[in-house]
Every structure is written in structure tokens, then in C-alpha cells.
Amino acid sequence: MKNATYDIRPGGAALVTINMEGAPVNVMNDAFTAMLDEILARLEADKDVISGVILTSGKSTFVAGGDVAKILELRAQGAEAGYAFVQGLKAQLRRFETLGRPVVAALNGSALGGGLELALAAHHRIALDDGKSQFGFPEVGLGILPAGGGIVRTVRLLGLMKALPLLTEGRRLKPAQALAEGLVDELAATPDDLIARSEAWIAANASPIQPWDRKGWSIPGGDMFAPANAGAMAMFPSMIFKKTKGLLPAAERILGVAAESTQVGFEAACEIESRGFCDLLMTPAAENLIRTMFVQMNEISSGASRPAFKEKSRIAVVGILGAGMMGRGIAHSSAVAGIKVILKDLTLEAAEKGKAYSQALLDKEIAKGRRTVEERDAILDRITPTADMADLAECNLVVEAVFEDVGLKQGIVRDVEAVLPEGAIVATNTSTLPISMLSQASKRPGDFIGLHFFSPVDRMHIVEIITGEATSPETLARAYDFVQQIKKTPIIVNDSRGFFTSRVFSVFADEGDRLLKDGVNPTVIENLAKQIGMPVGPLAVQDEVMMDMLLRSFKTNQALDAELGDAYARTYEVCGELCELMSSRGRPGRSAGAGFYDYAADGSKALWPGLEALFGGDVEMPLDDIRDRLMFRMVVEAARCLDEGVISNVRDGNIGSILAFGFPVHTGGVYQFVQSLGVERFVERAEALASTYGERFAAPAGFGATLERASQAKLAA
Amino acid sequence: MPHAAIIYDAVRTPRGKGKADGSLHSVKPVRLIADLLGELQTRHDLDTSRVSDVVLGCGQAIGEQGGAIGKSAALLAGWDDSVAGCQVDRFCGSGLESVNMAAARIMSGMDDLMVAGGVESMSRIPMGSAGGALFFDSELMTKVGFVSQGVSADLIATLGGYSREDVDAFALGSQQKAAAARDAGYFARSVIAARDAAGQVVLDHDEFIKPSTTLEGLGGLRPSFAKMGEMGMNAVCLAKYPQVSAINHVHTAGNSSGVVDGASAVLIGSEAIGRDLGLTPRGRIVAMATVSTEPTIMLAAPAPAVRKLLGRVDLTIDDIDLFEVNEAFASVVLRFRDELNVPEEKINVNGGAIAMGHPIGATGGMLVGTILDELERRRLKRGVCVLCIGGGMGVATLIERV
């Protein structure tokens, strides 16, 4: 037998150790289910000679869930293939639970999705208390649902109220939490203890029967109509809607299956679950989430776009120039990741203020029980504030995060290079200034690169790496490694005006402002932006970012346009116009208490009534046009980025758009949006919008072919 | 119409507080309605074998209220075996729906004498007891954009610009008018005291009315639906009504209909049977209308229902003397008033469900009796009863005093 071992223990228990060949983790696919068939056949043959069954894994994790490649394959084959596969898996799990011998799941590591479902089909679950293993149902995040009986068994085991959060939120629980929730029954201190406890349970429970197979059993807490559940059941659909806006069907479907499962017998509940799975499997959202959030995200994590230098590098000391909002955040993330940080500003006081920001963040975590005092002190010890450039002499990497001014930045590049060792990388956190322009100040432009962080740095996982004309592949690889070292997600962008994220995001604000100028009710603009899945409306987001700041960078871009002969600022000129208008009226945004919205002391906000006098707001425009203008404006701009070579592979744009500015996740990102819709339909709609509303909606010629080329997955050697 | 549907009488129980300490909590629902049938029988020396059917509205038709309660009631009241019975569910409009169904059977000439009305013991079988896909099936709730009726009422207030002060003022008016009417004996003919088997009075007046209500007192009450709105129902509203920036949660326990126990029974028959049995006609059901509208806003159907109703018989608002618009929530009535430009002095002149309570399946039958009494008292001609209903439905009836 391959893929698993089968040994009868001295006490008579059959120890089944799952260990799928050639895979780092056990995932459920055809090879896995074939292995289960073999195991079950042996168990059923040995039933009278074994005392029970211990299911465990030969890997460091138990079973990590369904094989995503298999899920995509099922989707391509159709609902019937999906149904057959999950019904087959369910039948196998049912054979474990009705074997007639006690089955213990000895969870030596993480059990997620299908892995947890396998464990739930056992009569008893013991988890190794290693403090890091994870238990949960991540399926909702991929747009599908647990289809190996996970919904049916979790509801029948824990009741609706306890099961629903676990099934719909995708939370991963640590061993102690899993015990508290009732997903596992016992914890074990060591691997030996794990097996010993498993054997002890088998010895004490010779004829186990699952609760739901016992006569007279009823669902804990009652069914969906039980008075104790009624209030919550009435609220769940709208609570889910508030989060998903109806754009992600999985959570609602899980809720429906879970509720219905309480109205029918076990077999019918399983069927409802399987059919729900098939329905979700075939949705565009499932394809989009799996492709982008799983497949492409994994490609990025495994360095698919990283130049193929074999050795992964590490930064030992990072220098941060400028302890302002961005610099202090970069310093914090670096120190948390174990990197020594030299945090420099013009004065020591300013640099120390930057370090104090780290302390404040860590103290908050301590108060929440997420950090110990020792950990805080160790992190803070790594940050050395200074006003002396000479202190950066030992840095392998410097990130400059000073004011957005070409002269200032070029000066500081020269200053820091004077003290840096050979081979140190100089990175700029600029969001607007061309890398190649800044690199002119560098003696070693091959070691110069853009590292565009997002605010607040401690919470924004994405970093936009921008390669200048002269940036060497090695520098890119090392920058990539640094971003991963500080546990962030890198996307790679080629130097161009606005790079990728700023350029695409600015047109969202610009289109919102154009709609406002066109006389559309601002309430409608903001609500429809949320309806398409943007987390914040275009007017609110300009208030958040502050329009005086946006105006400054707009003017910088205009000046650069004049200098370089570009037309970049024109792409968001209405945004620039309205930022000027609002700022000149003393309404630059949220931290001033007034922008497009008025901000009250209690934290609430309301659209400024003065917008009516300025823009009207009673123009009737088809709601679909408003929605599509907001969405397509971003996607067309992203398409141009791809067309111009700003982005080389769709994954960087997809992940970048979702993580940097909340592009609706159900679409899978700006490029997956087009692929899901279909290039033809995309171009057709874009052209319709262009002819009604303007050339800014025109998709680049030959975009279908461009998209195809940029989708070729290319894993690094 | 080939046959007129004549209202010969309309009776109702007093409304008891719909909680465990309410006066009618100790009276089983089938008894509540059976005793009204008994009253009709006694008052009119009724040969019950001439009644073909007892059609009763009931919103939560399970347990003690399950099983075609109209038939159970007829049997418990000792009516002739030949009297059939059934139960109707159109949520809050069930009582008026029953009246309309009975009237239609009389008008068609297929039946001669029927009882319609409803019963609801909200204290014994609370709202939600009978389940229902619209309130529990997440697929359906998501598909239609379901929000609870209180949030719908707040949405109506937001769209109509009705402030907390507006709805509280309306509620105060309902309390004052109901108290005055009750004290002046306007309900004396129709409200039949609930008695026990030994004849002792269990409840003889609408106990839910709060005559000492003040605007200040109302103003101090907590908005009942703000929390559920914030948890998600506001987002559902804004998705369907993107011109709304935020829901103004103005409804409270003080300006929403009261949860109560009660029953109603309306005796409806042909002119011929009235002559035959010596029954005195009081009114005539002239027209009826059932409509359905957008389910998220849910409670905005009264105006469309009355538009349809009056359109059927070519009448206008000016031709109607009195309106009974069920006070599910204050904003429902304010919107009705404004949408059809109905003079305020014609609406709910003796108070409404905010003061007296809304026993879901029974209310429609109660409104018929209330409006008929007042048309008689004032010697006016035409009255319209209308109720908003879950799911966006509405039901209306036009009555003429004879």
C-alpha cells in the first residue's frame, strides 16, 4: 500500500498513518480517495480482529483539505463530476463512522477543510497541543463549502449556533480553541501521548456510535425554528449580506445548508450539502477566488515572478530614512520580523518619536493578550533611532521614506550611498516619483529599486516592488526576499508614472468625482460603489486619504508631466480639480473634520449638504451605468498597465488590486474580472461606456491576446 | 354585483396584553373566538345551521391555533354540524382577507351566510412560532432583501422624512383618541367581554391603551430596531434604496403596534337570508382589493391597495368618509396619508393598533367593526379598511353603511 501505512498495534488498534507520496501535505484528491478505499477495505476485512482504528498522518500536518487542483478539475468537468466526487468521499467517511469499531482521529497537526471532515467522521478526536496547529473550515474563502459532511456533522455535533460561525467565517482555531469549541475532544502533550490516549479511548469505548446515529438523539440546541435559535436565524442572512453585499454566495449557501440540515435525516442532509457544493463550485466567484486568492497567491509566495537566483537572501540590518508615518511603520514591521533597524530622521527626537509608535502598537497588543512584555522589549531593542547618517553604515538595505520631493530624495540617496557598503540596496518608498529619475542620483542604479508600502504599514500586507530601468535582477530578487522576510506580499511592477496601484486606484476616485460633476446624487455614487464590492465609496476614500495631500501629489505629477512630456496627471484630472475645489473651501478631508462628508465628534459622518449647490445631484443615470463606470474605469486602466508592460503577469495585478485598495475580491482582481466576464463581453461593454461617457473607457487594442500572454503561469526554477 | 354582501354584525373581544401577565393569556384561543360566535348566536337568535362557513384569519396557525381553527371554533361554540370552518393566512391582513373571502362568496351567490374574522393569542403562540420561509429561509431572505418589519417601517420614515417627533406625535394621538372613544362608550356595542365558563368577566376592555402617555415619555423610549439594522438590515435596505444614506431608526415600542391577544367575528350574508332570519343590515361590503409590492420596504402597500380598491368602483378619496389604516407602525399611516393626500381627520378617528394592539390574524375583522360603529355614530356613508402586510402585500375593503 502506498500513500499510507497500516500497522496493528500491540493493544489491537489498527494504526493508519496517511502519508501521500510526493506531496508536502496530505490533500484530498483521486490518489487520496483511492488510498482511503484500500484502507477501508483492510479495516472492514480486519474488523473482527482489531480493537479499533487510529487515524493519523506521517506528515507534520494531519490533512490540509481538498486538493485545489482537483477542485478546479471538477469545476471544469461540471456539477455532475463534483457531485460524484463529494458523494463518493462522503460514502467513504461514512464507512469509518459505521465500521463498528471505535475510530480515533489522532491529529498530529493541522486539520483543515476535508481533513477536519475526516476527523469528524471519527468517533473521537485528539489533537496534539503544539500551540500552532490549525483546525477549521477555510472553504468559504474559496467560494465553496465543506462537502465531506463537514456542515452536517458540525451542526449535529455542536448545534447550529456554535457551528455556524465555524462554518461561515473560515476561522482557523488553535488546538486549545478547537477543544473549547468542541471540534476536538482531548489534547495530547506529545506525539507518544497522542497515541497512548488514542489507545486508551479505544480500550474504554468498544462500541461507539455517533450521536446522530443514536435512537432518540436530537440536534443540540434545536433545529432552525427552535425559539432559542429563531432570533439569530432571522439575523444571519442580513449579517452575511452586510459583509458580502450579495457578491459572495458561499457564506449564505453554507447558512442555508446548515439550517436545512436540521430539518431532514442524515442522508438527506448530506445530499443537500453535496448539491450546495456543486452549485457553488460552478459559480464565477469560486473560480475567481480559487484562481487568485489560492493559486496566484501561492505563486507569489513561492516566488513565481522572482528572478531565479537560487539562494533566498535575508536582510540583517535595514536602515529607514524618515521616521514619519510610513518610515516608522516600515521600521515596526521589520523589527517584528527580527530585523535590526536603524531609524533615522533629521533630529534624534523625531527618530525616537518614530520608535515610540512601535511601542504604542506593541503595548496595544499586550493589552489584548497577543504579545508578551518580553517580546515587546526584544522588538524595540532592535530599533535604533538616530540623527546620524553614519549609523547606517552596516545596513544591507535602506528604505527612504522622506517627503515626496525629487530634490530631497535624490539628495538623501547620495548621502546614504556615501556611507553604505558595496552591494547594499537603496529602496525608495515613493508613491509618485519615477524610480529611474530618482536612481539618477545613485552611484549604483543596479542596486536601486522602489519599495512602495501602504498605510498603515503594520496592517497592509502588500508591497509594490518597482523596478527601474537599471535595477538588476539580483536586486529585485533580494527586495522580493525582504518583503517576504517581513511577512508581506510582494507584487512586481515596472517603473512608470503612477506605477500600478496608485494609477489604478486614482481613477476610482476620479470616476467618482466625474459622476458627482455629472450631477449624480452623491449618496447613490457612494452606495453603488459599495454595491459593486468596493469597501469605501470614492468620495469617502478621498476624505480618508486627505484631498490636500492628493492635491500635492497631483501637482507634482503635473510638474513631472511637463518635465517629461507625459500626460499621467490627465488620467485623474477631475480628481485633481475637485481636490483643489474642496481644499480651497477648507474641506480637505476627514482629519480636518470636513471633506465631501461632515465628520461629527461621535465618529459618524454625513455627506455635506453643500454638494447639492455645487453639483446638483438630481440627474437620473441608469444604475448599471454608474456601477459599470466605477468598475470598468479601474479595469480599463489596469488593462492599459498590462498593455504597456507596467505589469507583466496577471497575478501581480490581481493580488495587488485586491490587497492594495480593496478591489472586489469576488472578481478575483482586475484581470480575473476580465477573464471571468469574457474578453469579448468586456470589450463590448467598455466600448459602449466609451461611446457614451468618454475615451477613458476604451480597452486597449488586442487586449485579449495581451491578457492571454500575461496569464501564462511561470514558476521559478 | 348580482348579490350584495351585507354586514349584519361585527363583534370582537377586548384586546389583552400579549404577554404572560396579559388578562387573556389564560384563555385558549379557540375559546376566545368560540365565545364570539356564541355572542352572535345569542344576539341574533341565530339558526346556526344557516351559516355555511366560519373563515378565520390566524397568523401563527400551529399548536393551539392550528388545525383549521374556524371549524374547531364552530364545534366548540356548539354550532350546527353543518357549519364548515377554515383558517386563512395572509399575515397581518388575514382577518380582512377572511372578510373579503366571505364577502366574495356571498356576492357570487354561492353562499348565503358566513362568519369571517380572526383570532390571535400572541401571548400563547408568539410571532415566529409557525416559522415560514420568508422569515427563516436564508436563500429566500437574501433573494428578496428581507428585513424585519420594524426596519422596514424605519425605512419608510427615512424616505418620507418622518422624524422621531412626527411618529411619536402620531402615537400620542392614537392613545388619546382610543382612550376617549373607549371611555365615551363608542366600543360598547362591539367589544364583548371575555368570560370564563362560570360567567365571570376575564376582561371587558382594551387593556393595552395607555391614557397617560406623554410626548416626553414616548421620546425617552429606545429605538427598537437600531441594533438589528446596524448588524446588517440597514445594509440590505441601502442596497435596494441607494438614494438613502442611512436609516433613521425612529420606531420604538411606543409608536409601533402593540402585541396583544384578541379575536373578531363579522356576520356577512345575502339580503335574502337577512330577511329570512330577521337580521338587520348594518353595512355592505362594496369592494375589495389585494395587492403586493416591494418586499424590502414591505409595509408600503396601503396606498396602492386603496388606489386599486377605489379604482374598481370609480370613487376617489373625497368620496370616502372614514379610513381605518392599521397602525402597524406610525410611519405606515403617515406615508398612506401623504401618498394619497388623505385629510388627517378621516384617519383612525378612534385610535388604532398603537394604542389598542394588533392581534395579527384578528385585526382586520376588528377594523370592520370599528369603522362600521363610527359610520353609524356619525351617520356617514363610506369607510375603507386597509392593512399593510408582510412580504409587501396589502388588503383593503370598502364598506357602506346601509
Secondary structure: elements and pairs:
The complex is a heterodimer of chains A (717) and B (402).
Chain A: E1 4-8, E2 13-18, E3 27-28, H1 30-46, E4 52-57, E5 65-66, H2 68-77, H3 79-97, E6 103-107, E7 111-112, H4 114-120, E8 124-128, E9 135-136, H5 150-158, H6 160-169, E10 172-173, H7 175-181, E11 186-188, H8 191-204, H9 227-244, H10 250-261, H11 266-281, H12 284-301, E12 317-321, H13 325-336, E13 340-344, H14 348-367, H15 373-381, E14 383-386, E15 397-400, H16 406-417, E16 425-428, H17 435-439, E17 448-452, E18 462-467, H18 473-485, E19 489-494, H19 501-517, H20 522-531, H21 538-545, H22 547-564, H23 573-584, E20 597-599, E21 605-607, H24 610-615, H25 623-643, H26 650-661, H27 670-677, H28 679-693, H29 703-710
Helix pairs in contact in A: 1-3, 2-3, 3-11, 5-6, 6-10, 9-10, 10-11, 12-26, 13-14, 19-21, 19-23, 19-25, 20-25, 22-23, 25-27, 27-28
Chain B: E1 5-12, E2 16-17, H1 29-43, E3 53-57, H2 69-76, E4 84-88, H3 94-108, E5 113-121, H4 133-136, H5 138-144, H6 149-160, H7 164-183, E6 194-195, E7 201-203, H8 215-219, H9 226-240, E8 260-269, H10 271-277, E9 283-292, H11 302-312, E10 322-325, H12 330-340, H13 353-356, H14 363-378, E11 382-388, E12 393-401
Parallel strand pairs in B: 3-4, 3-5, 10-11
Antiparallel strand pairs in B: 1-8, 1-9, 2-8, 5-8, 6-7, 9-12, 11-12
Helix pairs in contact in B: 1-2, 3-14, 6-12
Descriptive overview:
The complex is a heterodimer of chains A (717) and B (402). Chain A is an alpha/beta fold. In chain A, 51% of the residues lie in helices and 12% in strands. Chain A has an eight-stranded mixed sheet, sandwiched between helices. A six-stranded mixed sheet of chain A has the order 1-2-4-6-8-11, with helices on both faces. In chain A, strands 7-9-10 form a three-stranded mixed sheet. In chain A, helix 16 links the parallel strand 15 and strand 16. The longest helix of chain A is centred in the last third of the chain and has 21 residues, at 623-643. The mean pLDDT of chain A is 96. Chain B contains 14 helices and twelve strands. Chain B is globular. Chain B is 37% helix and 18% strand. At the A-B interface, helix 9, helix 10 and helix 20 of A face helix 5 and helix 9 of B.
